[in-house]
Amino acid sequence: MPDKEVVLRLVCEGGGSDFHREKNAAGQWEIYEAGCSIDRDEKDKEIWHHWKRGPFKTLDQALYSLFPCGSWVLLSAVEVHPAYQARLWDLYLEEKPNFQADNGDCFQHTERYWLNACGYAQA
After folding, report:
1. Mind listing the pLDDT tens digit for each residue in 47-81?
2. What mean pLDDT is reported for the chain?
3. Domain extents in the chain
4. How far apart are CA 111 and CA 114, in angstroms?
5. pTM greater than 0.85 (yes/no)
């Protein structure tokens, strides 16, 4: 088993975020988040911002640290580690009603990514 594995990859227009787990010195998994986003300076030149945050004890803790209100459901999940698929799908279903009314078109697009990434691909 590798010492570092991607557990969740979220993407959106203009950036994205990878959540991965790494083994610490005691052999326990810790979650880290690394990402990038694009911005423009006063001369309209693209500026990329990169970051890494953690460690977190759980993926839930990492997600809600970055997106306290649960807005991560508006992003597209393109990869989810099999060990986290069921938990993330449950969290997605919990948060979805909080955003669906104002973002219905967004959910039509992103939900299929969540379904596929969490192992519930539509036939």
Report:
1. 887 788 999 999 999 999 988 888 888 889 999 99
2. 87
3. 4-117
4. 5
5. no
List the one residue out of 40, 119, 35, 123 whose CA is nearest residue 72. Answer: 35
- In the block, residue with structure tokens 């998994």: 29
- Tell me the torsion sign for CA atoms 94, 66, 81, 3: negative
Task: Report which residue type is found at 16.
Answer: G
How far is C-alpha 88 from the chain's CA centre? 10
Q: Which residue has the tokens 């104002």?
A: 102
Q: Which two tokens stand for residue 74?
A: 């508006």
What kind and span of H or E run contains 95? helix 85-100
Alpha-carbon distance of 23 to 2, in angstroms, equals: 9
73 near 92, Cβ under 8 Å? yes
